[in-house]
Design goal:
Thiol Ester Dehydrase, Chain A, alpha+beta, 5-stranded antiparallel beta sheet, homotetramer, elongated, 3 helices
């Protein structure tokens, strides 16, 4: 694991599969979200904290490139890092890897804007920025 | 359609299937919810109205019996009725039917308690009760 | 509706919402899939046909840009067209619109490669290509 | 943990919540499935094995009673046991507990019939029966 990325393992559930016999592509988006959550938690900041401070991250863009299929009961590693950080926006990058072999299954990114509870764009609060910043250079 | 029930058609989505090649059993629960929503709408009451009045229905019980499998792109009819109505509780009954053949695919019920926004059990408000009542005897 | 696009309406389900009070961004991916299915059906070709002929479309890329939030019980129109068609690949484009106001809620695209049942890339079969082609120039 | 039950922890994902601010009731059904999978794995039998032997378990009934709400980012423990075992049928029982406090959040059961790949009811194969049996009395 590169020191600016955070890994979390997810086991494929039966409900994640479709009749092609592999994981339905929509589930990768859920895994990205799991990755984001764990990225923040590993930096001692939970997304729940952000919401309780009166902020939220609204997604503005999503991209995913699919390389390999994954099957029921396999374990994937979701590797998350901060790719770009602006005053009001943050872009997370993700890799989905086969835990056993390390093969790249998919990769992608999501972009988010920081809003307050009345949906106005706001500067990312400092405590959350600190959490994200450490993601970029691997230091506090 | 019996006059105390409300029918709504749902087409099976690819994402609803699993690697068995049929609809995953969890989706029937979503269809029940679609049925409840349409039951209320057909009586000119939307669940959104209930929430905007400061109430909500919290599910307390769920039962589903599965008879036949359903496949991608098939259309099912969700038939919903009120099975029991108490001061603070309502039980909806559901049948999932193959639209083309009328075959029973599954049936079940959900029980709900009426809460206010501070999670206290409350008498079902009259406007919503009227909507549900018509469901039982088929008259206004 | 432009003549090379196909529209289908989808009502937001309660399960589609998240605690932000709006539709969770992952559901847009499901709506894209509903749009693809209806695009083909409107050209008298169902994706089920393709699978029964021994082919399938594997997704290779996905992009979605989010503009506006959508709420429970609202109806969105999914507008689907073919953006690019190669020998073995097809790219669909999508717009998610508020049915009532026509406001653009989101737009995106998915790219797919045609595989046979042993996962080998294959030329898109002619009957399916005809269905897709009409999508591009609006004529049969 | 009672010795005939198997526990597995699941962290609530953001996508699991709905606009009530709590986990949508349909997700409990997914958690039951996660519990079943881990029950078998802990007895060194994976559901994947069963499918590769030419069998599958088709759900015939589902029941869930909801006691408490769960929120985003909380961890629940899914406790699974075998409640009833017949020649061709098995009933699993589940408790969903708050990991931190041990509070019961929900409980329920699912009943399944063993089918072969042509959908004929079949005697549960011995290797799978052994896995399930140990579930009932806690011994091999």
């Amino acid at each position: 694991m590169r020191d600016d990325a955070v890994d979390v393992d997810v086991r494929v559930r039966y409900v994640d599969t479709d009749q092609m016999g592999v994981v339905h592509h929509g589930n990768y988006i859920t895994w990205f979200e799991v990755g984001r959550t764990e990225f923040c938690r590993s930096r001692r900041f939970t997304y729940r904290d952000l919401e309780s401070m009166g902020y939220r991250l609204m997604i503005t863009g999503l991209r995913c490139l699919y390389r390999k299929a994954v099957r029921y009961d396999e374990v994937v590693t979701v590797r998350t890092r901060v790719k770009d950080l602006r005053r009001r926006m943050v872009t997370f990058g993700y890799e989905i890897l086969c835990k056993e072999t390390g093969t790249l299954i998919a990769h992608g990114e999501t972009r988010h804007i920081c809003l307050d509870m009345s949906n106005k764009p706001r500067t990312i609060p400092e405590s959350f920025r600190n959490c994200l910043d450490r993601g970029i250079d691997g230091t506090a």
